[in-house]
Design brief:
Strands 6, 9, 10, 11, 12 and 13 form a six-stranded mixed beta sheet that branches. This protein has a five-stranded antiparallel beta sheet with strand order 7-14-15-8-16, with helices on one face. A hairpin with a 6-residue loop joins β1 and β2. The chain contains 15 helices and 16 strands. It is an alpha+beta fold and 538 residues long. The longest helix is centred in the last third of the chain and has 24 residues. The C terminus is likely disordered. α9 runs parallel beside α14 and α13 packs antiparallel against α14.
């Protein structure tokens, strides 16, 4: 080996630094709680999301620079409390017997809701934003009373009793460990705190519920999008292009903050960085993993005789619609055999059935040259099982050999999807192209960065990325089937959103820019010359 080779190795070794030591997960949480810091406060200081901090306190470890900063915070907290253990215990005993109103309300509420994140004590009382009389606290930037009964000019109508908690739905499920288990059963309702990024324009005005301390006007997560757009336009002096570019640039962190906001009230915390099986890891540094997404790239082999006009239809917001899919909640578990469980989702090694309808419809598993078993996603498997069922009988059932699955729900991202869908619909109605491009960037970049990405380290779910993409492809296949059943000749199916047909497509698909509508992308003529049976445009 040459000296240059050793120099390169020495340089490589010198670049490897020892990672900062961290205490155990339980100690991390204990230090934060003793410092009366919420997860949101720690997350904001470190530039991550509260769910990431939750993961660190559940056993997951950070890496790189953020690990060093997290270790520095924990070391600082440990140093502060090194000589205070007996006093802290005395304080806790006293709090159990004679808590102050502030401490009592904080203790009674579930810790995961970070109750005191935006409550500041004012040195000089300021007029309450609700009643105008002096208030000693500021909440979310507004001076107000912690107890609604202190608002002297407030209406005298009786305060209704808290409504019974509604049963959580699938849309509320957001992963493996229950947040409610650790909360005292006597805890009063608490406000949903705002998810936010480091950018002040993207602050939440999330619904605040009465809990004996303060309340605000109700609003939804969609207000985050409105506020971000308004702030960007204001910052750039109303310049639409500059504001749009700024919003698109920050779409990933804003999407993650919106996801946090739409998960509030759910039963579980997101498992953001689960261990993944080898089949979901890249085979080479620039290669792909072993999962087949069933992306369609199909052209009809022969067309009806004569000249025909082909219309290329664009399926709107394909990835946005695909967010409604069965996603695994926790870490994937291995199983073997044809034991399909609709309550679980993941990836499956299957031998696909023979497809005998290639002349009129694309193969549901896409264009594949190699025969034999392959790893497919949940949407692809469910599509094949559906097509093999009694309603369609288009193929035999696939043979399942192995699976990596976890308990699942189709509504994991439902609130996130609905919020973006409503914002998109409103933007279309108002001709608001800034919001339209911003929303598009949020959902498309959210999907594309769920895997290994330097732009989104909040969630690493390679399995989710594959499943969402495959759901978009499965949705397109069903649109092709709908066209075929509606009497149209399907000419092409491409990617996630492109379908070429011959015939009166208005009888099958509504035209428009809504998520359930289609728009014309192109139109061309085929069959005008002898031998022109390829479906190519003229």
């Amino acid at each position: 080996m040459t000296g240059h080779g050793f120099d390169a190795i020495d340089s490589l070794l010198s670049s490897v630094t020892e990672q900062a030591a961290l205490p155990g997960p339980g100690v991390r949480r204990e230090l934060r709680e003793r410092g009366r810091l919420s997860r949101a406060q720690v997350a904001k200081a470190l530039g991550v999301s509260p769910s990431t901090v939750s993961g660190w306190e559940s056993g997951r470890d950070p890496s790189g620079e953020v690990r060093t900063r997290y270790a520095y915070l924990l070391d600082g907290l440990a140093a502060k409390f090194a000589d205070q253990a007996p006093a802290a215990e005395d304080d806790e005993d006293q709090a159990d017997t004679d808590p102050s109103p502030e401490d009592a309300s904080t203790e009674a509420a579930p810790e995961d809701d970070d109750l005191a994140d935006d409550v500041d004590v004012l040195a000089v009382p300021e007029p309450c934003v609700l009643c105008g009389t002096p208030a000693g606290h500021r909440i979310d930037g507004f001076a107000q009373h912690l107890d609604p009964t202190d608002c002297r000019t407030a209406p005298a109508a009786p305060v209704p009793a808290p409504a019974p908690a509604e049963p959580a739905t699938d849309a509320d499920v957001v992963t493996a460990a229950s947040r409610t288990a650790a909360a005292p059963t006597s805890a009063p309702p608490v406000p949903a705190r705002a998810a936010r990024t480091s950018r002040p324009a993207f602050r939440s005005t999330a619904q605040q519920k009465p809990r004996g301390r303060a309340f605000q006007e109700e609003s939804g997560p969609g207000d985050l999008i409105v506020q971000a757009v308004q702030a960007a336009l204001s910052e750039h002096g109303g310049d639409v292009e500059e504001a749009t570019a700024a919003l698109v640039k920050r779409a990933i962190p804003d999407a993650m903050a919106l996801l946090d906001e739409t998960r509030r009230g759910g039963r579980y915390d997101v498992v953001a960085h689960p261990a993944l099986p080898k089949i979901l890891r890249k085979q080479t540094s620039k290669g792909a993993d072993q999962v087949w997404e069933a992306r369609p790239k199909w052209t009809r082999r022969a067309l009806p005789e004569g000249a025909h006009e082909v219309v290329a239809l664009d399926m709107n917001a394909a990835y946005l619609s695909a967010l409604k899919t069965h996603l695994p909640i926790g870490q994937l578990e291995h199983s073997t055999g044809f034991d399909f469980d609709r309550r679980r989702a993941g990836v499956h090694l299957i031998t696909p059935p023979v497809w005998e309808h290639e002349d009129v419809l694309p193969n549901p598993i896409g264009n594949r040259d190699e025969p034999g078993p392959l790893w497919v996603t949940e949407p692809t498997l469910r599509l094949l099982l559906r097509l093999s069922g009694p309603k369609h009988r288009l193929c035999d059932p696939p043979e399942i050999h192995e699976s990596y699955t976890s308990g699942s729900t189709e509504g994991l991202l439902e609130k996130f999807r609905v919020t973006l869908t409503e914002a998109r619909a409103q933007a279309l109605a108002e001709g608001d192209e800034v919001t339209l491009e911003y929303v598009k960037a949020m959902y498309s970049k959210f999907v594309s960065t769920l895997g290994e990405s330097n732009y989104n380290r909040e969630i690493y779910r390679q399995d989710w990325m594959h499943l969402i993409r495959s759901q978009a492809f499965a949705n397109l296949w069903m649109k092709a089937w709908k066209a075929h059943e509606g009497g149209l000749h399907v000419v092409r199916a491409m990617g996630t959103d492109e379908l070429h047909v011959i015939g009166d497509w208005h009888q099958v698909f509504p035209e428009g820019r809504g998520v359930t509508e289609v728009k014309v992308k192109d139109a061309y003529t085929v069959g005008t010359e002898p031998g022109d049976q390829t479906g190519e445009g003229k």
